[in-house]
Amino acid sequence: MNIEYGMFQQQALKLNMSQELVQAISLLQYTSMELAGFVEQIATENPLLEVEMNYYSTFSQKSLKKRKKQSASAGNFEAFIPDHLPSLSNYLQDQLLTKNLTSAEKNYVTFLINNLNDNGYLEIDIDEASRILNLPREIGEKALNIIQSLEPAGIGARNLQECIILQLRRNENADPRLIEIVEHYFDDFAYKKWKKIEKELNISLNEIQRLFDLIQTLEPRPGALISNERTEYVIPDIIIEKKEDIWHIHVAEDSYFHININEGYYHELMQQPEPMVKSYVKEKYQQIQWLKQSIEQRKTTMINMMRAIIEMQEPYLLGSKKELKPMTMNNVAEKIGVHESTISRIAKNKYARTPIGTIPLRKLFTTGAKTATGNDAISTEQVKNEIRDMIDQENKKSPYSDQEIVKLLEKKGIRVSRRTVTKYREQLKIPSSIKRKRYN
What value, to the nearest 5°, has the Cα angle with vertex 327 and ends 321 and 329? Predict the structure, then answer.
């Protein structure tokens, strides 16, 4: 085996991404509010950059005046009402004020409350809690019973089964046999293996169905009823509207901020004799030029993308059609002459305000299903709607299996596999035919 050493010349093509290019790509992914924050951050580091911020531009002057007038009103008692619910912990602690508890019981109850998850379930075992607190298990059992007696019903449960039982015990209309079923036949009951229950408890399928319907009205996540989170509002990044048969596209960030260069300060600094000062000023000046160019390019791409979407989805955006046409990101990318990844970045986490409401941009993209003619003429959204309609109209005593839905779709000229039907049904949160079956 011969090994030779030497210097060789070889040509290679590499993609060398500069820091500016990386940031320019990142700008595509920013929402309008994130972009405004990014510009503000640069303004704190660049003395030549002047930014006029206007975060409240999405509100009309009329609505702002109305808010100011309401706030100034002495009789506006709503101003003193918090805009969010108390935390689950505080909500439960407030109910304890009427309880006569010993110091040990109060400490134990507080400890258990702090170990409830957001759904209201207890995440620690009583034995472990007693060991940590160095208190008897009897106090722990009493503390748990106290928590489970509070509102909302089902709070403090250790699993779904116990959560349902706690709620049934407070329900005056609940048949005692239902509690017995949930306690001793929970899995069989949940998976509709009701023949066994019917035989062993001498209860008709009709009655079991009625009890099952009652359970559907209960809350599986009682803690979620109490939230300490503020309501999150969606702020559109693109606004489109049609006036006099002309579509108008507005990028929201145009209203949030405006960039200027402090030319006077720039020329003043450039007259300084120190070379380092001049180099620094030139660098900051170029940064602003790059920022303005990148934002303008981002804006142009967003507008072009929205024009292409409008061209393909105009009936849907106007509300005259309920279903989207098949349209992938690659379709739009080819139409406006950019890479598919650019469309993916632009659509990420952004919303568009349209004539039919504010919707996520990603929702507008959908693949197609094969029709009898072999064309991708029907969107997945339309196929899902067809599946939902079929299941809504089926005989609940003999619901359609996924394979039967495949055959029914095929009669309508839509070709999909059974696996695809199962996937779409699960995405629609529709249970299987076994769980949809009713006995009354």
Answer: 140
